[in-house]
Amino acid sequence: MSRLAVRDLVMRFPAVCALGGVSLEFAAGQTHGIIGENGAGKSTLMRILSGLLQPTSGEVLIDEAPIHLRGAADALSKGIGMIHQELNLVDDLTVAENIFLGREPRKYLSIDSAAMNTEAALYLAKVGAKFPPGEPLSNLSLAQKQLVEIAKALSHNASVIIMDEPTAVLGDAGTRSLFDLIEELKAGGATILYVSHRLAEVEEICDTITVLRDGIVVRTLEAGEATQEQLAGYMVGRVFQDVFPDKTPAQANDALLSVEGVGGASFEVRPGEIVGLAGLVGSGRTELAEMLVGLRETSGTIRVGGHLAAIRSPRDAVKLGIAYVSEDRKDAGLLLSLDVIKNATLANLSSYAGPLVDTRREREGVEKWVNELDVRAGDLDAPILYLSGGNQQKVSIAKWLDLEPRILILDEPTRGVDVGAKQELYRLIHRLAADGMACIVISSEMPELIGLCHRILVMRNGSPAGELSGNASEEEIMMLAAGAGAA
User: Fold this and answer.
1) Is the sign of the CA dihedral 364, 367, 372, 373 positive or negative?
2) Are 303 and 321 in contact (CB under 8 A)?
3) pTM to 2 decimals?
4) Domains in the chain, start-ordered, CATH in brackets?
5) Label partner for 253 (CA 20 to 30 A): which of 181, 259, 385, 425?
């Protein structure tokens, strides 16, 4: 008997049918993978199951009994919890306060902080977190915040747990801890719905896999019945191959970016070159990028085009032609309540302004990038919130390309992006490099770095542990990242 099921679910929005009659069953004690391109209907289905959306028609059933979910709290009361890809946490609170927000243990008339911290520590231990429950959330990295989100979901003791891209910001160690936890939850009879674009993970951790495309179920199969290439083909509706374009040689010019002693790092990037930054979570990759664009203070010297550069703020970096696409689209890259046009011109608004913004020219500029990057947005005046993750990322990149930078730094550019959109982003990065741009790509996905980059710098403890060619193996990268090898 299925623990959770949906029958003939239909979800219509004003301009689109997001779900076109989906019927699925999710068994107790199993992990059910849900895959598909951005816009396939995965998020809509998960939002219905977690009580955040009311379907146009169809049924949700628990233990074969139809239920009506009136909101997230109602779903939790019925045993359905969700780990969100976009974190639902409050930076001004502690870790424990976030885990028990709205249901804090009480002693007489006040919150029992000691009991709350003790209980929170148990859930943090389950997810492999190494920070204390009393730590302010604002002090944590994005990966550490993801562990808090997972611990928060576990604290509800739900029998059905929906995981939406749970490893998107976790390193290998965090992912392994999560997989151990999933096996423990399954052994206790929990039903896990696992939404991910990482097909290798889906293949490893899931018992059953459902492929969605254009709001309908394309196929449901047991793990092992199809290769990753076949799964990708089901997702996009075509044979999927040649994920990475052929690498074009970097130009033999002098270095466009030269870094000496910045955060302990010294390296160069030439025009047309793609240099990867690898390393475990907390290795200092993002911190180094933030130093290069003036978001963090640093010692050392930076030269751009052979000239000494004083970069004390992001504004200085922009003036020098350095653009930085942050790993956190939601909080640092986009303003989700604003429309596509406003987001795409945020970094370069002054070029469209006289006394007033020239909205006609602004729209024309955005339409150029929408066409060039193949951004699928039906209405440029609609909030960017409604775009898929892949299309949001393209707009985030377009925002900086509108400045015509010479150096582009991309931090986790394909996080939360489906396999088809990933391929498009890879081609875009290669095209930019072929046109003479110097690119730095930070990624937790080693195959991505190997497939994209000419060279790979491996970070450990805040500084480079070594440099490898773009033909390096995953084992070589991991050995350097973990301190077991030397370049």
Assistant:
1) positive
2) no
3) 0.66
4) 2-236 (3.40.50.300), 257-482 (3.40.50.300)
5) 425
